[in-house]
Amino acid sequence: MIRRNILRAACISRTQRLNQQSKTFATILDTHVSLGQQTSSHFLAKRGNGSLTQSNHIPFIKTDIPASRYHDLADETMEHLLTSLEEIVEAPDADESWEVDYSSGVLTLRLGEHGTYVINKQPPNKQIWLSSPTSGPKRFDYTESSPREKPEWFYSRDGKTLKTLMEEELATILGKPVHLDM
User: Taking phi first (over 0 means left), then psi (-120 to 50 degrees means alpha), and beta for anything else, what does residue 83 get?
Assistant: First the structure.
């Protein structure tokens, strides 16, 4: 009898906690919907205990763009990224084994013992995909509503932009600040 009451109390407590989480999520979602915005999944973060909380980074809002505009924007981003990465691998202090290649919409940056970055367009999803030897795979969506007041490609799970992530990772590998012209 005592065990049954303890289990019942635990179930009631869990149900109340889930109801509160649902209310919090609904309030945040309703706010974005009432503002006519699409929210991305990184706006909410899961705490260790499984409850939802508003994350501490600025949310990006994915911009829906026509396919032709996606191709123009993605191509421009890839070309700018290629130019910046070529400067890195051709720098006097760069390792001879480093190389960058761009072919058929796939940009490959080989950094010897540090691994290989592969960045490519993903037209069906209107995304740019990154495979990083440091942080793994990521899918970047386009936004025109960046807090930095310029269009950017962002990763919806953590809110990082392609530019920021690449600059941080390359700076760690190179041991010096990196600025990518994107």
Answer: alpha
> Do residues 67 and 46 touch, judged by C-beta distance below 8 A?
no
Q: Which two tokens stand for residue 58?
A: 């600025």
Query: How many of the other CB atoms lie within 10 Å of CB of 167?
Result: 17
Matching residue, tokens 């019942």: 8
Rounded Cα gap, residues 133 and 117, in angstroms: 6
Pair type for strands 44-46 and 99-103 = unpaired
- Read off the pLDDT of residues 87-138 as tens digits, 9 standing for 90 and up: 999 999 999 999 999 998 899 999 999 999 999 999 999 999 999 999 999 9
Beta-carbon count within 10 A of 38 CB: 11
CB 126 within 8 A of CB 67: yes
What pTM was computed for the model? 0.67
Non-local CB neighbours of 109 within 8 Å, separated by 6+ positions: 85, 89, 98, 99, 100, 116, 117, 118, 119
